[in-house]
Amino acid sequence: MLIKDLINHLEDIAPLKYAEDFDNVGLLIGDKNTTVTNVLVTLDTLEDVVDEAIAKNCNFILSFHPIIFKGLKSLTGKNYVERTVLKAIQNNIAIYAIHTALDNDKNGVNAMICNQLKLYNQRILIPQKQTIKKLTTYAPITEVETIKNALFKVGAGQIGNYSNCSFTTNGMGSFNPNQDANPTTGKIGENHIESETQINITFHKHLEAAVLKTLFETHSYEEIAFEVTTLENTNQNIGMGMVAELKKPMTETEFLNYLKEKMDVSMIRHSKLTNKTIKKIAVLGGSGSFAINAAKAAGADVFVTSDLKYHDFFQAENNILLADIGHYESEQYTKSGLVAILTKKIPNFAFILSNTNTNPVKYF
């Protein structure tokens, strides 16, 4: 399998179109036409991880966090980023970062936390805006089903748990081909009236190129009338964080002990106890202070995240329990989750879980 083929599989899992604007995701180092030997899956890519890839004959590192986040003006090995990049290049090892593309996926980082905590009724906490588009086009009535079925095949017409969704209206289209035209129907220089159907079909924004390519390949007209608009509809499958529920309510102390056990953490920084029963849980792996108000608005009893600052804890306002379990700790199951997803998707290929602990934070 070539790197470009592996990337196609990764984009099926977490399309890069949904990564945050500030992020640096995708293939950071490597040639897309290189054959992949084995894939090492890690949370961070550091020198030790590159050494592990070399030892395990892996020439592709799938990293959650990007090693290159800001622009590099030189590669002299003066810091850990440059040393890691140099070692990867010198050993022909490609590096791909998936980061917030996976953060925003319904089966990504936050679903993995929910699964670890055995939570049910999972849904996106902060849906990403403007991720749904609508295609409107016009076609001869005889071609409508062929065009629709081709569009459905590439993923258009998916609305939540329903597929093959569309709406059509019959009408009369008019056109007059000029001397340079090569019309499928009608004559040059003459007004022509054709019985046509207006087709309306929605699709997720990462499918736009495939949807338009399919339209152009299946439509018979030389010039195809179409428009693509971006909708404000909420996409229930894309966005940051998750909110879910415990099977059985707990006291705050019981939940904090449960959280320590299930997330394998030695300590939890938390806000003042509210004496509320814990049932609804909001989670957001990594830095999640920006989502405190969203967690409160969702009616969560507790918000599990990391990297909360001193003043962030005041936002609890005795309405919610804020639990900071640590950045690495909140995302530690991401790499094993990715290995499980990829092994199921491509069962005849070797995906190797990195054994390197890349957590930079130590506790005394």
UniProtKB/TrEMBL annotation:
Similarity remark: Belongs to the GTP cyclohydrolase I type 2/NIF3 family.
Positions in coiled-coil regions: none
Protein name according to UniProt: GTP cyclohydrolase 1 type 2 homolog
UniProt keyword annotations, A-Z: Metal-binding
Domain of life: Bacteria
